[in-house]
């Protein structure tokens, strides 16, 4: 659950600046203070004992291990709690102290958090977002934990690996992006799952005749549109190009990117109108109320559907093929998981905990709590999965390449300060694609060049 | 016991230390909390620091941030424009409205307590709540306005509408605040002044504009200053709506977008903050000139 799940949670993240202290002065005060803090922090850590990194202990561990968690919602919070309880039970003498921080606050403060005194292990995401902090020397090497892990694919290992070839991340759960729809609507109207872009457009036209919004869409928060861009780019230009574009190695003003926006512009008439004033939850509800026919989103959209028969009615297909030479074997499935801080106070227990989190029983606890995600370990118990989860497992397994998500695959500052406004600009005025991509490219050069 | 004041020499040693501390400590606090960050902000605006690593690792980039802001950063000019609109609306609509409400209530409209409470309510509500209330009203698919009128105006998504929608919400808050300030001022006006005016045959209108308003000069100045500050700081409501994007850009939100977050562009954000500092300095300059002239 990388996203706010409901209005209340979303609003809770928007603590007024007077309270949170987000004004120019405070930010700078913090920034100026960091230098001083860094000096003392480092010294203190050097003096503090256990620096031996002798792999994952096989015997019992003891003491307190601190856990930083962004799982602030009631359900996942309880899941983390029972995860830690299970760990404590198996390792008597060890206490896992959970420090839960509101989801968005956690993300926005990650810089200060990691440079201050972070918890021994903490929740984070795979991809560039993880590599960025690893390359800034703010994360702990967990390669030795990885060497003991079974049941995780090479693709997972790759997305847990930093630029230096060491692992810095332990995957826990994942959820794919795809085109979601209600089975009952498709059955009732006799719709068929579109295989190609032309099929999709034809289906869209039929749906419009039937009084439906073909593709639900909400981009008020700025990020859901990134998912549509990613899908189109993966289908039009393929996985490798997508990854290097995200890494800043390709020009955004190239014909390849223009084609993505062009194709998108051609699809906008079958999207729900006025996406910029609608949250993803509102868009998902229009699918739930059978006012829309399809929705391109992550499987967390199931959270807007009631558990039981309503969620059973939810199904999905991969984004249709656009170029037959590219195919549809690349998908997007962000991985959520855990990292270890650079200098954990209790390294032995931290590594033992991470090894436990990678194991099937631990992941069973997590996916049971939130059935909109699936476990990353193949050994996890899929018998109790919902139909949607079972299909998700096959979907992810069948993919040749897996992208994360735009804001996880590229520099976060580029994603949030350039791409969110740019995509919103495109949705406002889909005609000026040249001006748009030139503006993105100019800003990209400035950010990636720094 | 009347002794003539002989200057600082009259104070005992301990008193001198205390007086000294009373001067030095606040000065240090102001320097540390206000001046150092402000100067630091200006200095950082010439760098590309990302907020990670020691200060010694900062690389200066000269005026590049300022060049980028004014040339290739699309939200900047809309933000300047929106800030000016914001200022104008607060000045010419929200503040007069608050004053008008205060005068009405002061004259003793029926149910004063009720109006006073309901108008002041938005000021005490948490901003998250204010944002949530207006989301219920403005939402395109599920909002009150569109449900009642059957319109499909995208109040928060259409960039030519959402600034005004946000300004209505901001006016709602600001007027209540100004009303309360002004009401306090009006209550402080000596009633005998009004009576004297009445005896002299002045109409209600004349009494207010010729007598009451000039007497309330200090309050008027405070109201103007509060309006200025609130408009420049305009941030929270817009941030609650859509984090200050898509038609709701303000300089303060751009600063926050760039500085706060996972991989912050502290240098770039500082340059934006410096521009904001310059703009507010102009206003501060004029304000100080007016105040100094008075003295």
From TrEMBL, chain A:
Keyword Manganese: no
SUPFAM superfamilies: Periplasmic binding protein-like II
Keyword field: Sugar transport, Transport
Keyword check for Transport: yes
Name recorded for this polypeptide: Multiple sugar transport system substrate-binding protein
Organism of provenance: Terracoccus luteus
Automatic annotation (TrEMBL), chain B:
Pfam families according to UniProt: BPD_transp_1 (PF00528)
Subcellular location: Cell membrane
Single biological process term from Gene Ontology: transmembrane transport
Protein topology in the membrane: Multi-pass membrane protein
Family listed: Belongs to the binding-protein-dependent transport system permease family.
Family matches, as PANTHER family: BLL4140 PROTEIN
Protein name, per record: Carbohydrate ABC transporter membrane protein 1 (CUT1 family)
Segments forming domain ABC transmembrane type-1: 80-287
PROSITE patterns (alphabetical): ABC_TM1
One GO cellular component term: plasma membrane
């Amino acid at each position: 659950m990388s996203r706010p799940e409901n209005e209340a949670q979303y609003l809770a993240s928007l603590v007024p600046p007077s309270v949170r202290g987000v004004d120019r002065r405070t930010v700078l005060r913090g920034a100026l203070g960091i230098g001083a803090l860094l000096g003392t922090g480092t010294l203190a850590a050097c003096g503090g004992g256990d620096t031996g990194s002798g792999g994952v202990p096989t015997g019992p561990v003891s003491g307190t291990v601190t856990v930083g968690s962004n799982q602030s919602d009631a359900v996942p919070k309880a899941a983390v709690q029972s995860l830690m309880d299970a760990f404590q039970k198996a390792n008597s003498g060890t206490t896992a102290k959970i420090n839960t921080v509101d989801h968005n606050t956690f993300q926005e403060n990650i810089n200060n958090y990691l440079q201050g005194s972070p918890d021994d292990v903490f929740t984070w995401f795979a991809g560039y977002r993880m590599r960025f902090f690893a390359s800034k020397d703010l994360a702990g090497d967990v390669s030795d934990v990885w060497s003991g892990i079974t049941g995780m694919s090479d693709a997972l290992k790759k997305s847990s690996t930093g630029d230096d070839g060491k692992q810095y991340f332990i995957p826990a759960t994942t959820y794919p992006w795809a085109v979601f729809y209600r089975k009952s609507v498709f059955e009732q109207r006799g719709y068929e799952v579109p295989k190609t872009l032309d099929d999709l457009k034809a289906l869209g036209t039929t749906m419009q005749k039937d009084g439906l919004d073909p593709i639900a869409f909400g981009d008020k928060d700025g990020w859901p549109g990134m998912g549509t861009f990613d899908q189109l780019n993966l289908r039009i230009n393929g996985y490798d190009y997508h990854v290097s574009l995200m890494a800043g190695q390709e020009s955004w003003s190239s014909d390849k990117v223009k084609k993505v926006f062009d194709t998108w512009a051609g699809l906008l008439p079958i999207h729900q109108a006025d996406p910029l004033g609608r949250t993803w939850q509102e868009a998902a509800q229009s699918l739930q109320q059978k006012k829309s026919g399809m929705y391109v989103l992550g499987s967390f959209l199931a959270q807007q559907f009631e558990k039981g028969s309503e969620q059973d009615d939810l199904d999905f297909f991969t984004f249709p093929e656009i170029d037959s030479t590219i195919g549809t074997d690349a998908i997007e499935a962000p991985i959520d998981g855990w990292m270890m801080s650079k200098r954990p106070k209790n390294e032995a227990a931290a590594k033992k905990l991470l090894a436990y989190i990678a194991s099937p029983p631990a992941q069973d606890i997590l996916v049971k709590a939130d059935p909109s995600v699936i476990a990353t370990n193949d050994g996890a118990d899929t018998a109790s999965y919902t139909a949607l989860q079972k299909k998700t497992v096959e979907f992810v397994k069948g993919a040749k390449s897996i992208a994360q998500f735009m804001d996880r695959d590229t520099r976060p500052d580029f994603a949030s300060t350039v791409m969110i406004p740019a995509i919103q600009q495109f949705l406002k005025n889909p005609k000026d694609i040249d001006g748009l991509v030139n503006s993105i490219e100019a800003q990209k050069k400035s950010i990636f060049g720094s | 016991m009347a002794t003539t004041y002989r200057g600082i020499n009259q104070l005992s040693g301990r008193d001198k230390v205390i007086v000294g501390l009373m001067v030095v400590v606040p000065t240090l606090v102001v320097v540390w909390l206000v001046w150092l960050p402000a100067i630091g902000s200006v200095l950082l605006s010439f760098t590309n620091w990302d907020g990670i690593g020691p200060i010694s690792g900062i690389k200066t980039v000269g005026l590049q941030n300022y060049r980028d802001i004014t040339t290739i950063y699309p939200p900047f000019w809309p933000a300047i424009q929106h800030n000016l609109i914001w200022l104008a609306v607060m000045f010419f609509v929200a503040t007069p409205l608050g004053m008008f409400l205060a005068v009405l209530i002061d004259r003793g409209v029926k149910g004063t307590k009720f109006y006073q409470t309901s108008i002041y309510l938005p000021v005490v509500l948490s901003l998250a709540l204010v944002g949530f209330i207006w989301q219920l009203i403005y939402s395109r698919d599920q909002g009150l306005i569109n449900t009642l009128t059957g319109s499909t105006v995208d109040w928060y998504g259409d960039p030519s509408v959402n600034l005004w929608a946000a300004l209505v919400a901001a006016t709602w808050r600001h007027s209540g605040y100004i009303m309360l300030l002004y009401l306090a001022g009006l209550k402080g006006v000596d009633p005998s002044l009004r009576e004297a005016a009445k005896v002299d045959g002045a109409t209600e209108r004349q009494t207010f504009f010729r007598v009451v308003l000039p007497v309330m000069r200090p309050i008027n100045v405070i109201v103007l200053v509060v309006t200025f500050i609130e408009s420049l700081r305009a941030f929270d409501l817009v941030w609650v709506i859509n984090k200050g994007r898509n038609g709701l850009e303000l300089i303060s939100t751009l600063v926050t977008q760039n500085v706060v977050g996972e991989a912050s562009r502290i240098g770039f954000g500082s340059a934006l903050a410096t521009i904001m500092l310059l703009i507010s300095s102009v206003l501060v300059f004029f304000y100080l000139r007016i105040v100094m002239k008075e003295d």
